[in-house]
Design a protein that fits this description.
Elements: E1 2-8, H1 9-16, E2 19-21, E3 27-31, E4 41-45, H2 51-55, E5 61-64, E6 75-78, H3 82-93, E7 108-109, E8 114-115, E9 120-121, E10 126-127, E11 132-133, E12 138-139, E13 144-145, E14 150-151, E15 156-159, E16 164-167, E17 170-173, E18 179-182, E19 187-188, E20 193-195, E21 201-204, E22 209-210, E23 215-216, E24 221-222, E25 227-228, E26 233-234, E27 239-240, E28 245-246, E29 251-252, E30 257-258, E31 263-264, E32 269-270, E33 279-281, E34 286-287, H4 288-309
Parallel strand pairs: 3-4, 4-5, 5-6, 7-10, 8-11, 9-12, 10-13, 11-14, 12-15, 13-18, 14-19, 15-20, 18-21, 19-22, 20-23, 21-24, 22-25, 23-26, 24-27, 25-28, 26-29, 27-30, 28-31, 29-32, 31-33
Antiparallel strand pairs: 1-3, 2-6, 16-17, 33-34
Length: 311
């Protein structure tokens, strides 16, 4: 998320009530999670395991819970609770704005697009031309939808990221300020949920087709011409490259990549990145031929035990 104008390091520190290390006039341009940070951004880190990664990433300002040596060319914000203070910044720069109509006044809807009854379209949504949005679809604030997109009944675009920090009294939610971006010629089936990015975009690229009842997590990017069958669940920060096929009930763990042209058979669990151009099966998913041989061997184990027992 980029700020509407540059802020100084001192101004940011005053918003969250933190100490800072660096020039008071050091320019701050935005805030983002570590996988999408750019120069000028703030990133937060609250665990020693990730200090080095945060301090050496592209972010210019590190919101951190320990006084450490500040890398050259960067600045620090010292906070007891970086997670909470990151939320404070989200509330300051991207506060929730309630809607006052089923279709917000700030929404833009393109030529020849059909909006069926009982659709909700939030603030600053942009929908292109020749789209069909069926009844009972909810499109939250700031979503971007291209041309020739079909969204079937009951689907929700732009729901919050499933991202929590465990506290003694329960869980603190990381506030979401990102978007969902749907490119041209995408079809979205009934009762799908597509979470917006925490600070960036969840993106589905052109010509991809989603079946019914699919969950797509925050900041995930799905490439061109993919096909995803029903009951598939994709966690956050996943990259699915072009022309991937995921059949029914596939589960995908967070922060991995599925390579171009990969096919994953139904009811598989993807627990690591997969190379493109291959077919996978099982949980954890492996190349389908290998997995099938393993299953055949397991199936033959009783007869092998029986033979050995008779010797």
């Amino acid at each position: 998320m980029k700020f509407p104008k540059p802020y100084s390091l001192k101004e940011i520190s005053e918003i969250i009530g933190s100490e800072f290390v660096g020039d008071a006039d050091f320019p701050v341009l935005g805030m983002n999670e570590i996988h999408v940070v750019e120069k000028g951004d703030i990133v937060f880190v609250d665990h020693p395991k990730y200090y080095d990664k945060a301090l050496n990433c592209d972010a210019s300002v590190v919101l951190i819970n320990k006084k450490v040596e500040c890398p050259k060319g960067k600045a620090l914000l010292i906070s007891d609770e970086p997670f909470t203070d990151f939320n404070k910044l989200t509330q300051f720069f991207a506060p929730f704005t309630s809607a006052n109509a089923a279709v917000a006044e700030t929404a833009e809807i393109g030529k020849n697009t059909i909006i069926q009854p009982n659709v909700f379209i939030g603030n600053n949504v942009k929908i292109g031309e020749n789209c069909l949005i069926h009844s009972n679809v909810s499109i939250y604030d700031n979503c971007i939808i291209g041309d020739n997109v079909t969204i079937h009944s009951g689907s929700v675009l732009g729901s919050d990221a499933f991202y929590y920090k465990k506290r003694a009294e329960g869980f603190e939610r990381l506030l979401s300020s990102g978007r969902v971006v749907i490119e041209d010629n995408v079809d979205i089936g009934a009762s799908c949920t597509i979470d917006r990015g925490v600070t960036g975009d969840t993106t589905i690229k052109e010509w991809t087709k989603l079946d019914n009842q699919i969950q797509i997590g925050h900041d995930t990017v799905i490439g061109r011409k993919c096909q995803i069958a029903s009951h598939t669940g994709i966690a956050g920060c996943v990259v699915i490259e072009d022309e991937v096929v995921l059949w029914g009930q596939v589960g995908v763990i967070s922060a991995i990549t599925i390579g171009k042209g990969a096919i994953v058979y139904a009811q598989s669990g993807v627990a690591k990145s997969l190379e493109g151009g291959k077919t996978y099966f099982g949980s954890p998913a492996e190349e389908a031929r290998t997995k099938m041989r393993e299953l055949t061997m397991i199936k033959n184990l009783p007869s092998l035990f029986k033979k050995n027992k008779g010797k």
